[in-house]
Specification:
five-stranded antiparallel sheet, alpha+beta, 2 domains, globular, three-stranded antiparallel sheet, FAD/NAD(P)-binding domain, about 40% helix
Length: about 350
């Protein structure tokens, strides 16, 4: 059950054996953590993109996908400051997720195409994510922190527990969250002590209804940190209850908390454009892996020269997004890149054996 809580956000009764099997297989040989933190992934990818002739645009949100007279995707419009700029390309690849790509970025006349609507009908929004980031005073040794992920459940019947939890309104007294994923990134990062000696970090992740927060969605997108006292109270109230629950399992942390930062589904919506605050994109339940859905949802879209990539294409999470990228690149290049990777792995193994000899 810990995989359901922490890795793809689906209730047990809706979980696909395929999704669960993929997750278990992913962890069979252990897990990895990037030295220096997740931001290092982006920092190391950027030079590769630039070396290949690409570029990175910051604070330049895509406004729309450009379509030429032949009905083909030919670029995007981005907003830089108050100015809109058209960028043209032979192929457009969207990592914005299927709901944003089809519902926000395509022209209205294309959104209503039967082929587009058919794809959308096979998927639905995933559950909203709620995160609490905690700064702790003390090293991992002093606080007895392990480089591991923990999941906690209030009861064994997780289906009934989550059903009851998601039926609540925001005005209801949410006594506690039924599932919690807890991790200590500082304990996983071998370079942490070089940068933040004597300090540690903790992250708590759970699920939350987008509807609990949506009344503040349109209030202040330009001043995201100023949504008002009611929003902050709701957010911090849930965070405090999560921390209280977790410190029952880790009592040594109770008096060591120095910093708390909270992210609601609206935070996911604002910072990563998750359409309803999802942390895993589309809902990766059993219906997502039905033959009709698999046959319909491809990297190649009904719009010529427009492709989808990321976790909506195959499966969720970091690993799923990587596979989404491989599937997309294979479609664009008309080439099986998985075969290329297998051959490359064989060559590297052969070279390694030869070097040792």
């Amino acid at each position: 059950m810990c995989y359901i809580c922490g890795n793809y956000g689906v209730m047990p009764k809706d979980a696909s054996f395929m999704m669960h099997a993929l997750t278990v297989q992913h962890y069979q040989n252990g897990a990895w953590y990037p030295k220096g933190g997740p931001s290092e992934i982006a920092f190391h990818i950027i030079p590769v993109i630039k070396k290949s002739g690409g570029d990175i645009l910051m604070r330049a949100p895509v406004q729309r996908i450009l379509i030429n007279k032949d009905g083909e995707a030919c670029g995007v419009t981005v907003k830089k400051g108050e100015e809109e700029i058209n960028l043209f390309a032979p192929v457009v690849i969207s990592n914005a997720g299927i709901f944003n790509t089809y519902g926000q970025l395509l022209p209205c006349e294309l959104q209503s195409k039967p082929a587009i609507q058919a794809q959308l009908s096979t998927v639905r929004h995933g559950m909203g994510g709620f995160s609490v980031f905690v700064g702790l005073n003390g090293s991992k040794e002093e606080l007895e922190l392990k480089a591991a992920n923990d999941c906690f459940f209030q009861e064994n019947n997780l289906d009934e527990l989550l059903k009851k939890y998601f039926s609540l309104d925001k005005e209801d007294d949410i006594e506690g969250c039924p599932i919690m994923f807890v991790s200590f990134p500082s304990a996983k990062d071998p370079s942490w002590d070089d940068r933040y000696a004597g300090k540690s970090s903790m992250v708590i992740v759970t699920l939350a209804q987008y509807e609990w927060f949506k009344e503040w969605k349109d209030e202040c997108d330009e001043c995201v940190k100023k949504r008002g006292e009611d929003y902050e109270n709701l957010k911090m109230g849930i965070a405090r209850r999560l921390i209280d629950q977790i410190t029952e399992y880790f009592p040594q942390l109770k008096d060591k908390i120095e910093y708390i930062k909270v992210g609601s589904p609206l935070s996911n919506q604002f910072y990563v454009a998750a359409s309803r605050g999802e942390i895993y994109g589309v809902n990766h339940d059993v219906s997502c892996f039905a033959s009709e859905a698999i046959a319909s949802l491809r990297a190649k879209t009904p719009v010529k020269k427009l492709y989808l990539t990321g976790q909506d294409v195959f499966s969720c999470g970091f690993s799923g997004a990587i596979h989404g990228g491989l599937i997309c690149a294979s479609g664009v290049l008309h080439r099986n890149l998985y075969k290329d990777i297998i051959n490359l792995k064989k060559k590297m193994k052969k070279a390694s054996v030869k070097k040792e000899a």
